[in-house]
## 1
Amino acid sequence: MIRRVLIANRGEIALRIIRACRELGIESVAVHSDADARAPHTLAADRAVAIGPAPASESYLSIPRVIEAATSSEADAIHPGYGFLSENAGFAEACAQAGIIFVGPPASVITTMGSKIAARGIAGAAGVPVVPGQTPGDQSDAGVTVAVERVGLPALIKASAGGGGRGMRVVREAGEVAGAVQAARREATAAFGDGTLYVERLIETPHHVEVQIFADGHGAVMHLFERECSVQRRHQKVIEESPSPMLTPGLRARVTGAAVAVARSAGYRNAGTIEFIVDLSGKGGDAAPFYFLEMNTRLQVEHPVTEQVTGLDLVRAQLLVASGEPLPWTQASVCQRGHAIEARVYAEDPARGFIPQAGRLVQYHEPHLPGVRIDSGVAEGSEVTVYYDPLIAKVIATAESRPLAIGRLAAALRAFSVGGIRTNLPFLVRILELDAFRDGRIDTGFLDREGAALATSLPVESPISNPQSLTPLRGPLPPGPVNPQLMDPWNGVPSRSASIRPGPTGRRARSAGVGQLVLTAPMPATVLKVPVKPGDTVKKGEVVVLLEAMKMELPIRAPSDAIVAAVVCREGELVQADATLVELK
Ligand code: ADP
Ligand code: ADP
Ligand code: MG
């Protein structure tokens, strides 16, 4: 049995793994960046190793540093959590070479399933339907365009190496194809170092249903039922639940059977998830069509809902399987009981286009309520930095029925208070109050279509939110409902008021002169790209600077037709909030 586990992660998942280790009598070793020297996971582990500066590329994503930390601390296994190196075959391989157990599947399976193109092949060979699509042999822009034409519009251009909703672009009109191919490729190359693209038919208003599977080294491959994850924003899950309110028993049997077939034919081991989209635009019922999307070769963010309805500890089972033990259950012994729902609490501002928030949690209180589990990675006083993703906690409610679980979750979210930075807590409560959500009618596009309206409908002093969670990072909220045209950096128009708002030091960042417009950074960020130079003419809506913060791309667009007067930032530079980026006239 494994004796000492190094956890190559941070935040709530690192704490979750430390808890499982402690129960099993396994020693835990945390790794941390300089930014996380006093983070909860660093303090909670039995020992902690500093592995480098704040940027993930120099710490949590550095294979040599993580392996060195494991060797020096004499860990016999590494749990990668999710994100970071969890789906990096090179990392699994490096563990093997260092004689360290990787808590996950064999490196070769990560490689195969990490290519969505190869994974589609495996699913097809296992007799499981994949979304109708095309893999262009010719990967040039022209080749991908031909694939889009063959698939027909609307289509989805996707990165073979994609993940976290990145490297994906919808095309509805022929005129959008060229731009979408380039955007998908650029995003995929930046995020995954691999710009290989394929094209799928866009399934309109689908449901995202995924199946938790588990396999051991003794021939057992089983499923732990499904999770419904259709409440998504920009292809990122926001609320997840089990069972899916959309599945009939017959459809559930088909979907879970398909998942086991894919895992078996992939030669899978340990915990994994097979994602499907279910097309309920027809009659639905037992015969509704569903398609394999991809396999995630790791534990998922939303694994707690499966743990709640099955009563099983997935991290414990991961450690057992990695130690070479058989799975501690049989398919027949596993059942789905009651209902569990998880909401992801993000440091982001729904009223300003969901822009991620960084800053200190000056106040932080988690509710303690029956049937409510909270997996979090922060504490009062913690700093949410721009270096990592903005997930701060997951709130999971369990009850005997779906309506009761929803009510329980809403009550828990209302009682959750966060001060110092804005969160999506009030927005989550609004979603739970929707009739469409209560009826289980939300498809994967719902929040992208309705989310902005839903967010701006949030009264600033909403009775459903804790006022503390609405405390802005700097300066007061503009009075009245926030106008999304002015405040939505995602959808393009940067905050004009930013240029005359007091800066972080409290003095006036200067006013723009007549006919001048100063575009500033809405938050601390890295400058990814500056596609314009002084003298260029830009059209309203054109991207003048592409920023990145908290793993998200933030395009800063021209608010009107203009001429670029000055460019005040460089590609690769880390800029502070309110820093001037570009001056337009
Ligand atoms: P899962 O499929 O396990 O639910 P996701 O696909 O949502 O997980 O996220 C996969 C990885 O992306 C996770 O490791 C998580 O850290 C990261 N991630 C989660 N939320 C965001 C976000 N808003 N932006 C970028 N990355 C994210
Ligand atoms: P990622 O690796 O980024 O998680 P996925 O392939 O799992 O990428 O897709 C993420 C989300 O995008 C899905 O949950 C679904 O909402 C949407 N999606 C993916 N493919 C399609 C498709 N062909 N049609 C409609 N929606 C899709
Ligand atoms: Mg996915």
Note: The pocket of magnesium ion (ligand 3) is lined by residues 275, 294 (CB under 6 Å).
## 2
Amino acid sequence: MAILKILQYPDPRLHKIAKKVEQVNETTRKLVRNMADTMYAAPGVGLAATQVDVHEQVIVVDVSEERNQLMAFINPEILAASGEEECEEGCLSVPGIYETVRRAEKVTVRALDEHGREFTLDADGFLAVCIQHEIDHLRGKVFVEYLSQLKQTRIRSKLKKRLRETF
Ligand code: NI
């Protein structure tokens, strides 16, 4: 079990673009396990490799109440999106900030699992929101970037101030 360090917004490394995983192997599976440990310990409902400073297209999600339905998506791609939904989101890289974001209500995602097997998933509701939020991380996008410039500036100064108080 390994808990990885989660990058905190506005760390510029959160804006790196993740590369595709060429081959799903033991290194990938170890990353998935460590990311899952980190997500559960935080606790959170999703984590992208970008957030632990690994710039490969890997995300983990678990939206179950029992915290026993881990899903790993490697090289995830949104094939279809429909509807609209507003949901209050938070992020382990933006602690203590919760803001409403508008996203697609339903998505169809294609990805590889931790054994390299391709699967397609139709997701809606909170799961769909989580998947879109995590895929954004792989593209270097943090959810606060959907907010107004004014709000983003306020959030950045709040987090920087908090960071100064910690050290
Ligand atoms: Ni996030």
Note: The chain has a mean pLDDT of 96.
